[in-house]
Design goal:
The chain has 380 residues and is an alpha+beta fold. The protein folds into 2 domains: 164 residues, P-loop containing nucleotide triphosphate hydrolases (Rossmann fold, 3-Layer(aba) Sandwich), CATH 3.40.50; 124 residues, OB fold (Dihydrolipoamide Acetyltransferase, E2P) (Beta Barrel). Helix content is 24%, strand content 34%. The strands form 4 sheets. A 6-stranded mixed beta sheet has the order 6-7-8-3-9-10, with helices on both faces. A 5-stranded antiparallel beta sheet has the order 13-12-11-14-20. Strands 15-19-16-17-18 form a 5-stranded antiparallel beta sheet, with no helix packed on it. The longest helix has 18 residues. The protein starts with a helix and ends with a strand. The structure holds adenosine-5'-triphosphate and magnesium ion (MG). Magnesium ion (MG) binds next to helix 2.
Amino acid sequence: MKSLGNIRRSFAPWTDPAAKPFISVNNVTKRFGDFTAVDDLSLNIYHREFFALLGASGCGKSTLLRMLAGFEQPTAGEIVLDGTDLAGTPPYKRPVNMMFQSYALFPHMTVEKNIAFGLRQDGMTKDEIGERVLQMLKMVKLEKFAARKPNQLSGGQRQRVALARSLAKRPKVLLLDEPLGALDKKLREETQFELMDLQQNLGLTFVVVTHDQEEAMTMADRIAVMSHGKVVQVATPAEIYEAPNSRFVADFIGDVNIFDGKVTASNAGSLEIAIDSDLTIRVSGAEPLPVGSAAGFAIRPEKLRVSRTPPANPGINAASGELWDIAYLGDMTVFHVKLKSGAVVKASSLNAQRSVEDPFVYDQEVWVTFAEDAGVVLKD
Ligand SMILES: Nc1ncnc2c1ncn2[C@@H]1O[C@H](COP(=O)(O)OP(=O)(O)OP(=O)(O)O)[C@@H](O)[C@H]1O
Ligand SMILES: [Mg+2]
């Protein structure tokens, strides 16, 4: 059997020009009065994709989901699902179900009845309903709680009931708005993997809203990073992390060091950016930029090496400074190095060895170095 990781790695319909998107959001705008919550946004989502919308509070994530579900109408633009323009299709006729940010269970109904609710409306027989509900209860591991009312459950259990209820109707697309928001860290991590398993096994398309980057990175095939009603970048978690397309994305996802300078040389895929008199950054595999233009450079802490010995080529991708702070986090150590320019950079290294001989100490003079392909150039 193929592992979940293997299946997910080989799934990349967006790289195939012939693949047809399952959901197309085309130039969709949503205004509330004179406020624009979603701004000329376009996205393609593929069948069986686990798609995450990630962005700060108020950037328009829920509004976009609500338009997909049919609870809000776009002010402009169109949403096409499986070849059909959804304009004019009411929510209950869309092959889409939504699990809300503040999932509302019916307080007077048992867990079982809550899950069965949509099925009875759909006219399934009693036996069919019974079977489906049992299957859903098993899936979310709540068989023993079938007869309880929501107020007799923990927050995490309630969340799982809401999930079971939204999946019971077997929607082709499930929209999940902060599905794990009420769970504690450990349960959250477990449930992330359950969700991924479920989505894979049922062959569904998931669109998940979250403001937790780690969660999006763990679960999603692709992530759309949103800001102020617009999509800033759509890419796989690895691409978003390793090759952010802008300062905003670099800064939003994970930890990053950003240097600003001016381009001093640009040829054959190699770019030089002068940061200050002590540091010039040489980047390989970069797009050409005009000499003299302003450019930034973003590099993750784990791509910086800290050492006590001066490098062979000081000044190029190497800067000296003093060790300002050392945070030992168990699995890794984070160093803050204050460069001669006054800038403080963050470097991290894994603590794979049990003990360190000759450890670093505060205020020590150190060198920070990095490879030519270790970071990305920021044009904005
Ligand atoms: N019905 C409405 N009337 C007016 N403004 C609205 C309405 N619904 C949403 N907004 C505004 O649109 C913007 C986007 O809201 P939305 O709920 O989509 O944000 P979000 O990205 O889901 O944020 P959060 O992470 O906090 O849930 C917000 O500024 C919000 O105040
Ligand atoms: Mg929201």
